[in-house]
Amino acid sequence: MEKLAPLLVGAHAGSAIIAGHYAGLWETFHQHPDQKWTIPELCEKAGCKERWVREWVGVLASAGVLKLEEGMILSCDKDVVEALLPTSELLHFFTSLEFIADKENRIGACFKNDGPLGVGYSDYPNFQDWMAEWSHCRNTNQNFPEGYMKLVGGGVHEALEKGIEVLEPGCGRGRHVMAVAQRYPNSKFTSFDIDNEALELNKVDAEKLGVTNVEFVLGDFCNMKPEWTNKFDYVMIFDCMHDLPHPAEAMKGLKGVLKDNGIVTMLDIDTSSDMVSQTKNPISAVLYNISLHHCMSVSLSSGGVGLGACWGVELAQKMLGEAGWKEEEVRVITKDIPNHAVYVMTKGNGLM
Q1: How far apart are the first and last CA of the chain?
Q2: Burial of 106 from C-beta contacts in 10 A (0-12 / 13-18 / 19+)
Q3: How many other CB atoms are there within 10 angstroms of residue 22's CB atom?
């Protein structure tokens, strides 16, 4: 019970943290730093009903997230509030509970020998929006795209400014490619995904933003289009390789679509392939759980290998080698972007 009770408290506190986000309560705390509140005062500022906020306070004061003193005086530490604002990646890890919490019975069935292979991609209608918001948050904090392109080096930033052909596999809701296309208008972008609904939404977004140098097309990362052979100077991949049913096939296809001196960058989760080592970091529980409920599941559901989010840098390097990338052609950048590694693969002399 000593080990399980804090986990139970944390699970319920996480749910209340998400509710407070949608109610605008964390924003209200942020707008009035260091203030102590009565519940009616907080409700007046936040535009909330007192009865609802009172129960919410009961959850989070019991969990130690909020401070409740004699006289029903309420406060919250500044660092806690800042960690729960919409610009915080930590908040988005909390909101991941929204698209996995209702899948427990179906995920549990997948464990059984006679159960389904996994829960399919189409069964996660909220995932694309969640991923888009997380990407937007991370990108804002990392000065994306220019900061990212300078980080990966190899002349990518300079080449994009001059004008090159770029491919983005697995674009999802298009947050990355739209930002890059706006910053580098001289370059042309082809962005594809298996989700046609997301692509149609992306086209609407591009029109609203006046972005004309991106083409969104339906495509399969594990089966590149023949007309893309030797077509692109740069391939940029964000957060999708570990979700694929057959990532080894996707890696093999990368060199084929590159021009002779092209570059690939692949941003993915930064973990160790050694589970014993990785699980010594408690935050790994979040990464493994998102993978259990989505990343691994969607891959397995389509007959894939179920690589999972925590596949790790060591396995990624091994698979790149097996896909035809020589050791000297691959650079790995870690620690510069929290929780992520960036793999830079250079064909020939690169873009320098």
Answers
A1: 59
A2: middle
A3: 10
- Mean pLDDT per 10-residue section of the chain, whose length is 352 residues: 92 97 97 95 97 98 97 96 93 91 93 96 87 87 93 96 97 95 98 93 96 96 93 97 95 94 96 97 95 96 96 97 96 92 93 78
| Cβ–Cβ under 8 Å, residues 132 and 175 | yes
Do 67 and 103 belong together in one domain?
Answer: no
pLDDT at 335: 87
Q: How far apart are the C-alpha atoms of 307 and 11, rounded to whole Å?
A: 26
The reply to whether 33 falls in a domain is yes
Tokens of 280: 């010594």
The full DSSP string for 168-200 is ESS-TT-HHHHHHHHH-TTSEEEEEES-HHHHH
Structure tokens at 151: 């980080």
* Number of domains, the chain: 2
Determine whether 45 is exposed, middle or buried from the number of CB atoms within 10 Å of its CB (0-12, 13-18, 19+): middle
Asked whether residue 254 is assigned to any structural domain, the reply reads yes
